[in-house]
Write a structure and sequence with these properties.
The complex is a heterodimer of chains A (499) and B (493).
Chain A (H helix, E strand, L loop, with lengths): L2 E3 L2 H19 L4 H21 L1 H5 L3 E8 L5 E6 L1 H27 L5 H19 L4 H19 L5 H33 L16 H14 L11 H4 L5 H28 L1 H7 L1 H21 L4 H22 L2 H32 L10 H4 L1 H15 L5 H15 L3 H26 L21 H19 L2 H15 L3
Parallel strand pairs in A: 1-2
Antiparallel strand pairs in A: 2-3
Helix pairs in contact in A: 1-2, 1-5, 2-4, 4-5, 4-10, 4-14, 4-19, 5-6, 5-10, 6-7, 6-10, 7-8, 10-11, 10-13, 10-14, 12-13, 12-18, 13-14, 13-18, 14-16, 14-17, 14-19, 14-20, 16-18, 16-19, 17-18, 17-19
Chain B lengths: L6 H22 L4 H26 L2 E4 L10 E4 L1 H28 L5 H20 L3 H20 L5 H30 L4 H7 L7 H17 L8 H8 L2 H26 L2 H7 L2 H21 L4 H21 L3 H32 L10 H4 L1 H15 L5 H15 L3 H27 L15 H19 L1 H12 L5
Antiparallel strand pairs in B: 1-2
Helix pairs in contact in B: 1-2, 1-4, 2-3, 2-4, 3-4, 3-10, 3-14, 3-19, 4-5, 4-10, 5-6, 5-10, 6-8, 6-9, 8-10, 9-10, 9-13, 10-13, 10-14, 12-13, 12-18, 13-14, 13-17, 13-18, 14-16, 14-17, 14-19, 16-18, 16-19, 17-18, 17-19
Amino acid sequence: METLISLKPLLAVAVSTLGALLIAITGEKARNLREAWSIFTSLAKFSIVASMLPDILNGKVIEYTLIKITPELIIKFKVDGLGIFFALTASFLWIITSFYSIGYMRGLNEHAQTRYFFYFAIALSATVGVAFSANMFTAFVFYEIITVSTFPLVAHKETEEAKKGARKYLTYLLGTSIAFQLTAIVITYSITGNLNFSSHGVFNKDISYELITIIFFLYIAGITKAAIMPLHSWLPAAMVAPTPVSALLHAVAVVKAGVFMVIRVVLYIFGSELLKTYNLGLVLALVASFTIIAASVIALRQDDLKLRLAYSTVSQLSYIVVGVALLTPSSITGSIMHIVTHAFGKITLFFTAGAIYVVTHKTKVSELDGIGRQMPFTMASFTLAALSMIGVPPLAGFISKWYLIFGALEAKQLFVLGVLAVSTILNACYFMPIVYAAFMKKQKYHISFGDNKREIREAPIFVLFPLILTAIATVLMFFYPFFFLEIIKIIVFGVKGGN
Amino acid sequence: MNLWEHSSILIVVTPLIASIVNIFISLLKRSLCYPFFVGILGLCSLLSIDILSVVTTSGTIRYKLGGWTPPWGIEYTVDHLNAFLIIIISIISFIIAIYSKESIKKELTKARLPYFYSTYLLFVTGLLGITITGDIFNLYVFLEIASLAGYALIAIGERRSVLASFNYIIMGTVGACFYLLGVGYIYIITGSLNITDLSRLLPSLYESKVTLAALAFVVVGIAIKIALFPLHRWLPDSYTFAPSAVSAFASATMSKVGIYVLIRIFFTLFEPRFLTDITPLSNILIWWATVAIFFGSIIAIGQTDFKRTLSYILIAEVGYMVLGISLCNKEGFIGAVLHILNDAIMIACLFMIAGGIFYRVGSRNLEDFKGLGKSMPITMAAFTVAALSMIGIPPTGGFFSKWYLILGATKAEQWISVAALVFSSLVNAFIFFKLLEKIYFSKKEVIPKHNFRELPLSMIIPITIMALTILIIGFYSGRIISSLIRFTVPEGF
């Protein structure tokens, strides 16, 4: 595999840190300029990431060593198929979220907006950092930066509830990463002397079963951002954050950084062969399957819209984990595909939740009767995204589910089929009543601000436009998945060593 | 005469003489004391840089005091480890000296200031002497100079500091006596006090009961001085009630110097195999340190006074370093030595911030940290950096020493110790994020308007320098290890 040395990965990471500094310097006094920085850096970030794509598609790898702190602890970037796939998703959605954030924050007249945009940019920097990490140490550094930089975003409201949520958020994410992930990394290093992600894993074949099991589960427990049960409850707690944060960070950047790290650890630290030998993939698949069902069941009972979405995220993230845990080409394809399909679907759903809040200040599912008539575009987008989540064609969610089903057949793990089926039904059960109520039921309360009760009152254009865009994207992705599958082919090809 | 040749003696003698001269200067004009005091410590810092550069370019310095040859005369030996500690002590003492101007003015009466400066200089003399001498009895002398100066410095703090200092005197004197007894035993069986000489004489006496007794006395004596649990009782009170500058300086240097003495005794005076094969001391100390880490961390959670919290964290950190050296492998040792540097800077920075908050708010209570993020933005940014380093979040310095310590414990398969290190990181995370939340996300309750201000420049600059150093040494950890710490690793690891 050809390796290019280029500054681009560093630039892709650093550009939003620079943007964050500009945001902080500009401040509240020149808010239009400050917002311009947000949008400008998000565009720049996406362009830099996208500019690396042609090389990756040609089967090359881009590397850049930033600093060798000690001989074994090196901050190094490496852009491969998996990395660029995640970076593209996150940085593209950041552009949309930037617009949405502006509409949302101004629409609600939120306080401390500079702090909000500042930490948002830092979090995105670190997310792309995780995507482009060449070794476990670099990934760990950026993983921690994500945690620390999103803490102020979760605590944004500064109320007791927000602080409580933020505390839980930090306890889970930081606590487990220090207690389990760091320990796992240290043990990995002391056994192998190597922390680089490599397509066949870093461990020797003769490692004992007990040791490998312990390390494996230390890693899985340490990457709490993937929200695998029982370490998931930080995610619902994080819903106290402003909605754009829940949308981009807690449906895309942060949680996907978690599952991304799981994929990295499974495929590039352990390697599929080693895990197959010891059947550890299967154990992980079982745990994730449990999470899929349990989280969906909990989601059914949530009246708070954002909480329902959060539990849905917990469940959907485990789709990705199941896919990679089955360790077959199709299941891995489905798993990685689900990163992007779920991202677009869930961000739309959160955007709509935010739009409803901006217009009506309603947060409960039970209050949404008849809201479809008042906000037709918003609720239509909601419907599309919900259908995509359920996996109905012609929407993006179908593609990833299709590959996951294939993967389950390839791996001959039929229980996964059952899990996917039950989960699909449960998804429908917790999403469709909302759609039904929004369009069919009569308004219980008058969600009105003036005399015209039937008047269409959509959210401001900055809020509305992004969510329509992402909803349309879920449709387009069904018809044009080839672009994504092309990248995934490279990833699977690399991991499988050419089969 | 070329003065630079004598820098290893000058660095000890300069502050010693200056501490006496300072008293006379104060009789002439009191306002001259402070510039003199800072100037002398600046000079020490320059000398320490010179010593470091000599050691790195031309190897160990052996300076024969008064021209007497060892083992009869006293010899000053400076190798990489000494130079490493000397530079830490001199530069931190210099930075804290700058910081002390405003903070001490607020905490002490004017008439006492010259005495503070003199005692501080004596304290520095003692600490530098310990790290520079190659003679175990001379080391005792400097240990006592440092300790006595330390008692005095602590006693000039708040009203309750007198009792704290008294406790410290009793404990410290017991420790010093134990150390002296150990030295006595060693002298009885070998007839020598020079470390280099002893390292040649002692191996044939490893089986002797006297050697064992001597080692036991020395270890316990030093354990008291570094406040290794359960011999820590003197520390929390002393460092809580002492003046801020004193807490900062003593916490940063006293325990580190003690760790240095342990390293010298374990790996220069004796050989690593004495700890691991001949006696079970390595194992005993691993467990001892592990317990200290757990204990310090657990007690730290429950404190409401910031300086007291830091004191208990320090007790846990002392456990880290003792653990690192007693693991008897390369990684653990590198971790311990690197942690001497990191911990010195982190704990000094945090105590300085504690002093800064006391300066403005007049309180050390954790509850009074509310809303400080708005009124003292720079100090609190420094606090954030130091806190992240304490927790061990990369790329701050604290991460790298912790990395090596955990790696060392893993290599030695001491899983309980690994758990202790991780546990202590978690506790630090808990303590510091609780504080950060108070600082940045809580509204300030009614507090007089004049407190809503950043610290004066002479305090803010030292604090900022410390915080920046924490960040920078993180990135240079590898460099520090390969150019300095690598040479301190004992043979046979």
